[in-house]
Structures are given as C-alpha cells and as structure tokens.
C-alpha cells in the first residue's frame, strides 16, 4: 500500500483532489474534487444507490433539508450530547480529542466507554506528551459540541439559531410517517439518503479521512422489535459483500463489534467495518441497531404519533431501526488506497497503476487514435458514440505508450486504439489495464462490452 503522502501528491497531480482555496493559502481540512475525483464520487454514490436503494429489500429514497428546525436536534440529543472529549495543552494552546491521544499512545486501549475523568487520569498517569510542545501540562477534559451553528433570517439572535446537520439520519426519522403513508410500505422497509453533513471536528486530518464537510450515504431500516439483530447481521454481510464485489481486498478489512460499555445510549448493537489504512486499521463503515430511540424521542417532543399499525397482527408499535452509514469521501480514500500501486515491469521499467472496478473508474474507456492525422476523425466518432452512455476520454497527445501509462495511472480499465486496420474492417484494439493484454474487437460491440464490465 502506498503512503498517505504519496496519495496526496498523486491525487493533486492527476486531478482527483485539490487543496481547498489553494490560491489563497488553503483552508485547513477543506478539499476540492477535480474532474477525476468528481467522477469517482459520483460512481461511488451510484454504486451504493444501485445496491442499497434499487436492489435493497423494500427501500425507498429521500432528500431532506440540510437546515432543520432546532427542535429536531433537541429531540435527537445532538444539542446536549453530540460532543467529543476536548483536551488543551497549556503550553502550546493546541487542542486535541482526548480519546485519540490515548489511542495514539496505546492502540490497544479502549477509551470509548470511559468517563472524561478516566481519560484525563490516564493521560496524566501515562505522561502523554503534547505532540507540539512536548509537555504534559494539560487542562481538564471538557465536552466540545461538534455542530456548526448559523442564523436564519436577518437578525442574529437566539430565536433564529439553526444548525448545519451533523448527520442525514434525522431527516429520515422526522419524515417516517410521511414516507410510510405515501409509499404504503409495510415494515420491514428502509429509507436511503445521500447528502452533505457537517461536523466541527476537533482534530480532523489524514487527508480526506476525517473532514468537517462530507457526504453521507445512510440507510434507516425500520423493522419489528425483536427482529433487529437478525436484520443487523443481514446488513453486515450485505455491506461486506458490497466492498468485496467492488474489489476491496479482504485482508484489508476487519470487523469490530462495540463492547457493551462503548455502545451509544440508543444502541443495542454496533459494529464498525475497519480498513487497513497507512496508519493502521480504522473505521470505514458503521452499522448500528438504534432501537426505537429516535422515533420515540421525536414522538415525545413533537407530540406526533410515530407508531406503526401492523396490518397482519393488528399490533401497534414504534419500529426499531438498523442503520448502515458510510461517508462518500472515506470510501473514495479507501478505493484509492486499495488500488494504487507502483508496478515493476519486465526489463526494469515500472508503471503507476490504479486497480479499481470499472463501475467506479472515473473513465470507463480511453479512445486513442494511433495517428491523429489518419485516425483522428474515426476515433472522435467512436468517442462521441460511447459518450452517449459512459464517461469516456479522448487522448491524442504523445505516443501511444505514454497514453497507455496515463490511463493506467488513473484507473481507466480499457484503452481503445483506432489504427490502420480500423479503417479497413471497423475493428479496434482493446487494451486491458491490469494485464496489458490486447484484443481486436468490432466497433459495434464496444458498448455492450463496456456495459458488461460495469456489473458487480
């Protein structure tokens, strides 16, 4: 696996990811997605929607507002409890997440279930030093709420305070009755949503691993109480197969169930799917059994009935919820780390190679005229035809070998070369990215060939 520093440089040079506001010196922890990054993110979202919305069990979609009535966050507990343990060093004035400092000191520690006092005592007893000042002069740990606050309207006062949503899930919960009524779905059913969320993280970092602005892909699956653990296990396997089918190496995955004392107050089961990043195993995808907590909280505060009448048993209950939740940017990071390599070739040569599933590749094919003068018009004709259905790229600059290498580096699975034989029999050379094997193919078969490669 490449280093994080290598990946950052690669992402900038190829057009996957740029530093946000770079011409003004940047803005910490903001990233802009270039042409390739935009396509990669789009393809990740389309792959997730295909498997979790279209092909999932009884799933519908939602696109809820980023700005919600502040009472939503009061009911959900975010106003009082959506916080991280913040610790500040008196010498450097640097602030850190206390639990992350502990884990950096001892990766085997389990601070998730600890009180603020226990974490502080551990840091003092183990003489954990500030990475900046090198001192152990720490202030007591306090809670830091991660919600971004803003104002709605022309007057900036408490009455007009609103928050940028820290998760998309609450938009689903408050629309539960609307969705169930209009779709006439019977429990069990789910609601899938893709959208921006915002968290004022204390210590964001590791490139795009943890950012303050990110896109979430969340699914809330409503089921009958008592069946949630069965569904929890079903979704965990479904998530695993999604990753494996898209090419993630199984040895890079680990499943970490949360200990009882580390569970969120609303959860009766949580498991993180972890990926082996350059810094070690860390969270990729979370699965939580949220019980009936959210719907109950919204029922209590809004006074709206959130119960469901089971038409088969005539029983009325508040459904339990199982939630798979993953970040688009984190998946993008994982697919890049999982597939990027420097491959040694016979003869002492090497190439930069991004092994990525064709469904996720920014471009599905590159159309290359062997000689611009003789083959450019035909290559352009093929490009325009394929572009009606796929993201493809046309490249006529430099010799054919260098063009192959450019496409290998950005993950393009097929290079389609138009040459003299094309003009005679309407066939092209199709070169495969991973093996560098080449075959001849009729131009009329290209579309079906590419379409078949996108299946997973």
TrEMBL record:
<dbReference type="InterPro" id="IPR045864">
    <property type="entry name" value="aa-tRNA-synth_II/BPL/LPL"/>
</dbReference>
<dbReference type="InterPro" id="IPR002314">
    <property type="entry name" value="aa-tRNA-synt_IIb"/>
</dbReference>
<dbReference type="InterPro" id="IPR027031">
    <property type="entry name" value="Gly-tRNA_synthase/POLG2"/>
</dbReference>
<feature type="binding site">
    <location>
        <begin position="283"/>
        <end position="284"/>
    </location>
    <ligand>
        <name>ATP</name>
    </ligand>
</feature>
<dbReference type="GO" id="GO:0004820">
    <property type="term" value="F:glycine-tRNA ligase activity"/>
</dbReference>
<dbReference type="InterPro" id="IPR022961">
    <property type="entry name" value="Gly_tRNA_ligase_bac"/>
</dbReference>
<feature type="binding site">
    <location>
        <position position="97"/>
    </location>
    <ligand>
        <name>substrate</name>
    </ligand>
</feature>
<keyword id="KW-0547">Nucleotide-binding</keyword>
<keyword id="KW-0963">Cytoplasm</keyword>
<dbReference type="Pfam" id="PF00587">
    <property type="entry name" value="tRNA-synt_2b"/>
</dbReference>
<dbReference type="InterPro" id="IPR002315">
    <property type="entry name" value="tRNA-synt_gly"/>
</dbReference>
<comment type="similarity">
    <text>Belongs to the class-II aminoacyl-tRNA synthetase family.</text>
</comment>
<protein>
    <recommendedName>
        <fullName>Glycine--tRNA ligase</fullName>
        <ecNumber>6.1.1.14</ecNumber>
    </recommendedName>
</protein>
<comment type="function">
    <text>Catalyzes the attachment of glycine to tRNA(Gly).</text>
</comment>
<dbReference type="GO" id="GO:0070062">
    <property type="term" value="C:extracellular exosome"/>
</dbReference>
<comment type="subunit">
    <text>Homodimer.</text>
</comment>
<feature type="domain" description="Aminoacyl-transfer RNA synthetases class-II family profile">
    <location>
        <begin position="6"/>
        <end position="362"/>
    </location>
</feature>
<keyword id="KW-0648">Protein biosynthesis</keyword>
<keyword id="KW-0436">Ligase</keyword>
<feature type="binding site">
    <location>
        <begin position="209"/>
        <end position="214"/>
    </location>
    <ligand>
        <name>ATP</name>
    </ligand>
</feature>
<feature type="binding site">
    <location>
        <position position="167"/>
    </location>
    <ligand>
        <name>substrate</name>
    </ligand>
</feature>
<dbReference type="InterPro" id="IPR006195">
    <property type="entry name" value="aa-tRNA-synth_II"/>
</dbReference>
<dbReference type="InterPro" id="IPR033731">
    <property type="entry name" value="GlyRS-like_core"/>
</dbReference>
<keyword id="KW-0067">ATP-binding</keyword>
<dbReference type="GO" id="GO:0006426">
    <property type="term" value="P:glycyl-tRNA aminoacylation"/>
</dbReference>
<keyword id="KW-0030">Aminoacyl-tRNA synthetase</keyword>
<dbReference type="GO" id="GO:0005829">
    <property type="term" value="C:cytosol"/>
</dbReference>
<dbReference type="GO" id="GO:0005524">
    <property type="term" value="F:ATP binding"/>
</dbReference>
<dbReference type="GO" id="GO:0004081">
    <property type="term" value="F:bis(5'-nucleosyl)-tetraphosphatase (asymmetrical) activity"/>
</dbReference>
<feature type="binding site">
    <location>
        <begin position="327"/>
        <end position="330"/>
    </location>
    <ligand>
        <name>ATP</name>
    </ligand>
</feature>
<feature type="binding site">
    <location>
        <begin position="323"/>
        <end position="327"/>
    </location>
    <ligand>
        <name>substrate</name>
    </ligand>
</feature>
<dbReference type="Pfam" id="PF03129">
    <property type="entry name" value="HGTP_anticodon"/>
</dbReference>
<feature type="binding site">
    <location>
        <begin position="214"/>
        <end position="218"/>
    </location>
    <ligand>
        <name>substrate</name>
    </ligand>
</feature>
<dbReference type="InterPro" id="IPR004154">
    <property type="entry name" value="Anticodon-bd"/>
</dbReference>
<dbReference type="GO" id="GO:1990742">
    <property type="term" value="C:microvesicle"/>
</dbReference>
<feature type="binding site">
    <location>
        <begin position="199"/>
        <end position="201"/>
    </location>
    <ligand>
        <name>ATP</name>
    </ligand>
</feature>
<dbReference type="GO" id="GO:0015966">
    <property type="term" value="P:diadenosine tetraphosphate biosynthetic process"/>
</dbReference>
<dbReference type="InterPro" id="IPR036621">
    <property type="entry name" value="Anticodon-bd_dom_sf"/>
</dbReference>
């Amino acid at each position: 696996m490449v280093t994080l520093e290598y990946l950052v440089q690669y992402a900038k040079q190829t057009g996957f990811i740029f530093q946000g506001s770079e011409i003004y010196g940047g803005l910490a922890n903001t990233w802009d997605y270039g042409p390739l990054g935009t396509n990669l993110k789009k393809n990740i979202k389309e792959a997730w929607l295909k498997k979790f919305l279209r092909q999932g069990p009884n799933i519908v979609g939602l696109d809820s507002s980023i700005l919600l009535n502040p009472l939503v966050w009061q009911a959900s507990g975010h106003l009082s409890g959506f916080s991280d343990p913040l610790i500040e060093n008196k010498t450097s004035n640097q602030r850190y997440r206390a639990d992350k400092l502990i884990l950096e000191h001892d990766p085997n520690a389990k601070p998730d279930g600890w009180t603020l006092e226990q974490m502080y005592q551990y840091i003092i007893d183990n003489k954990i030093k500030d990475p900046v000042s090198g001192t152990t002069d720490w202030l007591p740990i306090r809670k830091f709420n991660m919600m971004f606050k803003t104002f709605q309207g022309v007057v900036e006062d408490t009455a007009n305070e609103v928050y940028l949503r820290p998760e998309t899930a609450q938009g689903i919960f408050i629309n539960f009755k609307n969705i169930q009524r209009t779709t006439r779905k019977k429990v069990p059913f789910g609601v899938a949503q893709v959208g921006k969320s915002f968290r004022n993280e204390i210590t964001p970092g590791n490139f795009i691993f943890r950012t303050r602005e990110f896109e979430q892909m969340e699914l809330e699956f409503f089921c009958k109480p008592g069946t949630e653990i069965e569904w929890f296990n079903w979704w965990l396997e479904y998530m695993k197969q999604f990753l494996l089918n898209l090419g993630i190496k199984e040895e890079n995955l680990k499943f970490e169930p949360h200990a009882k004392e580390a569970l969120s107050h609303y959860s009766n089961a949580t498991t993180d799917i972890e990926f082996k990043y350059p810094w070690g195993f860390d969270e990729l995808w979370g699965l939580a059994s949220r019980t009936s907590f959210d719907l109950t909280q919204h029922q209590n505060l809004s006074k709206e009935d959130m119960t469901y009448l089971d038409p088969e048993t005539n029983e009325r209950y508040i459904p339990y919820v199982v939630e798979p939740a993953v970040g688009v940017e984190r998946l993008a990071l994982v697919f890049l780390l999982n597939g990027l390599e420097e491959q040694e070739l016979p003869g002492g040569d090497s190439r930069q190679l991004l092994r990525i599933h064709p469904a996720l590749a920014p471009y599905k094919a590159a159309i290359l005229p062997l000689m611009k003068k003789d083959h450019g018009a035909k290559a352009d004709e093929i490009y325009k035809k394929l572009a009606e259905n796929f993201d493809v790229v046309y490249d006529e600059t430099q010799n054919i070998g260098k063009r192959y290498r450019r496409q290998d580096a950005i993950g393009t699975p097929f290079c389609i070369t138009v040459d003299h034989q094309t003009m005679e029999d309407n066939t092209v050379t199709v070169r495969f990215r991973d093996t560098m094997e080449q075959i001849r193919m009729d131009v009329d078969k290209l579309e079906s060939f590419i379409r078949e490669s996108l299946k997973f």
